[in-house]
Amino acid sequence: MYDVIGDIHGEDLKLEGLLRHLGYLPAGRGYQAPRGRQAVFLGDLVDRGAGQRRVLEIVRAMMDDGQALCIMGNHEFNAIGYATEDPRNPGEFLRPNRGDSETSRKNRKQHSAFINQIGEGSPEHAAWVAWFRQLPPWMDLGGIRLAHACWDDGAVEVLTDAGWTPGKSLDDAVLLAVHQKGSDLEQARKLLTSGMELALPDGRYIEDKEGHRHYQVRLANWRDWANALHEVALVPAGQEPQIHGLALPENFRRTPITGAPIFIGHHWFKGQPRIESGKLACLDWSAAAGGPLVAYRWDGEEVLSNEKLVWER
């Protein structure tokens, strides 16, 4: 049985409180799971919070002891690119951070808390980046399926065909390929770790909680019942006018989720934690912005229930 845990973003105190709440006991640098259970982390362990090293220590220790599993979030993927030189652009990195462009400034700001705590270019930094490469972009545990932002069978197949699967580290060839703009591999990686996005018309943008402008809007493509864009567009409060008058994308699929339940994070939900449907739960409830760190205690059920959510504020 699994305890699936959402985005932590360096909130070590919330993580330790949640693990204790779930009945996990301190063991070495990590925690020991209750008998018959295992923790599963949905990625985005890093960036933002003050306890990033401690979060990483706990998760890695639990994985090494067989007490936990973990998939890759977009922030771990970004951390790899931030620290990997771009052979096609000497002096720059796969995730640009050396120049004075808006993109480089945004990337440095987003990753600054991690860099400041770990030490940019230090042996510890290199070791954590190498460990991030071991995290898979998706996981199918039979009874449940896990992806950081959304589950997509086609994207799973594309990455599998390229050799990036659970149990295999992200090698240099695939890393470069998933940074190739417009490639199928790039689109598959984005879908699983960052979700479906809709490009906004010229002049429109979404401003996030940190003041960054995004020229795409995230879509909750698992909401098969939706008939209007505002029902699937995930925009911060006050940003709704940016999607006014826009229609759903023509390729928006409305196929109900079948098979094993799906767990995702990534989307910074707010308010009272709740599942999206009996087949999908988002467990990111803005832990790094004053919200709770949320887990779902899965006991083999085929239909999810709000009663199985557990959280720590």
TrEMBL record:
SUPFAM superfamilies: Metallo-dependent phosphatases. Residues 88-110 are annotated as: Disordered. GO terms for cellular component: cytoplasm. It holds the Pfam family Metallophos. One of its GO terms (molecular function) is phosphatase activity. It comes from the Bacteria. Residues 88-105 have a biased composition (Basic and acidic residues). PANTHER family: BIS(5'-NUCLEOSYL)-TETRAPHOSPHATASE PRPE [ASYMMETRICAL], METALLOPHOSPHOESTERASE. This is Calcineurin-like phosphoesterase domain-containing protein. It comes from Achromobacter pulmonis.
